Amino acid sequence: xxxxxxxxxxxxxxxxxxxxxxxxxxxxxxxxxxxxxxxxxxxxxxxxxxxxxxxxxxxxxxxxxxxxxxxxxxxx
Length: 76
Known about the structure:
The chain is mostly beta strands.
């Protein structure tokens, strides 16, 4: 079973975020709570933590704009 990595809702006016940097490589093993992804919006920049432990599969790359709720990766 895999766990999706989603762009979170960061405020009522935020509709998308840019993937600025993957902090780990595709295929890497991550632990729950590890910082794995940096995103930025027009108002803020934050790091996203791994929602589960397992092997990361990246679905969207650095520089991509992703709407809130978009799946940017998975952990299996």
